[in-house]
Amino acid sequence: MPGSAIDHSHDNVIDIFTRKPLSELADNRIIRLAAELDGLEILYSNTENPNKLFSVKLLAWGLKMNGEVVGLVPWLDKLVACNEINDPLNGQWQGYYDEGVDELFFNAPMHKIVELETAAEYYDYQCDSEDEIIQEIPDSIGTHAALSPDGMNNIVLKEIVSWRLSYSGNIEAMLIDENKQAKTPVLPGDHCLYSADKCSDFRYFFQHNIANKIKNRDPDAMAAISILEDTS
Fold first, then answer.
1. Cβ distance 159 to 144 under 8 Å?
2. 208-215 and 219-231 helices cross at what angle (nearest 10)?
3. What are the residues whose beta carbons fall under 8 Å from the beta carbon of 91, sequence distance 6 or more?
4. 179-195: b (≥16 Cβ within 10 Å) or e
5. How far apart are CA 99 and CA 59, in angstroms?
6. pLDDT in tens, 85-97
7. Is the pLDDT of residue 107 over 70?
C-alpha cells in the first residue's frame, strides 16, 4: 500500500487537537478513494425525529492505512467516514443502504474493498511532501458548498467539481474560480479549481436536493438554514 510503515514508537505522542496518539491518526489516514457509482446511501437518525430514518447519498469509499474501508459523505463542513457520524442532534449513523434491493448493511461491499486494495497496491506512491496530490475524483452526487460572509444571512451556493486526496490523507472539495476558467466543462485537475477549505466564506456542504430547495427558498430548507445561522 502507499506510504511508509507506521512508526509505533510515537504511540505516546498525543495530537493536541484530536487528543489521539499520532500512530492512531496515521493508521486512520485515507490512502485511496473509490467513487460510489451505484447509488448506495447511508441511513442516519437524529434526536429531533426519533421515529424516522434519513438517507444521504454516498460520495465514495476510502481505504485507510490500517486496511479498513469506510464510506465517505460530505457532512456539515467536512468529508467524514460514515461510521464516525455520532452527533445526537445532527445525526447518528445507522448503516449503509442499498435501495435497489432494500438492504441495510454495515461493512463496505467486497467489490469496493477489492477495487481499493488492488489500486493501492498498483499505485504505490512515495511522496516528498505531505501536501502532494495523489488522487482526484469527480463529485457524482451534486454536492454544493455554501459560501457566506455574514453567518449564513446571505448565501452563495457553488457546485463541487471534484475531491482531491493528498498524501497526508486530507481530502479537499474543489470549486471553480470563474476568473481563471478558460473552458467548459471544467473537469477534475483543471487549473481554475481551488479548495473550499481555503475560502474564508465557506460554511457547509449540501447535497443537490437540499441545495435546490435553498435556491427555491423552500420553507423547511430555510428553517434549517436559520438553525445553522444560529449555531454559526
1. yes
2. 100
3. 44, 45, 46, 54, 75, 85
4. eeeeeeebeeebebbee
5. 16
6. 988 777 899 999 9
7. yes
DSSP string, 48-95: TEEEEEEEEE--EEEEETTS-EEEEEEETTEEEEGGG-EETTTEEEEE
Alpha carbon 11 to chain centroid, angstroms? 27
Distance CA 147, CA 205 (A): 9
The cell numbers describing 158, all together, are 457553488
How many whole angstroms separate alpha carbon 10 and alpha carbon 23?
6
pTM of the model: 0.85
Residues in CB range of 23: below 8 A, 6 or more apart: 6, 7, 8, 10, 11, 13
Q: Smallest Cα–Cα separation from 212: which of 155, 144, 150?
A: 144
Helix (H, G, I), strand (E, B) or coil at 216: coil
At residue 13, the pLDDT reads 55
The total number of residues written for the chain in this structure? 232
Provide the residue ranges of all domains of the chain, joining segments of one domain with +. Answer: 1-126, 129-232
* 209 three-class SS: helix
Residue 26 CB partners (closer than 8 Å, separation 6+): 6, 65
Pure H helices in the chain:
22-27, 110-122, 208-215, 219-231
**Cα 169–chain centre separation:** 12
What is the grid cell recorded at 93? 449513523
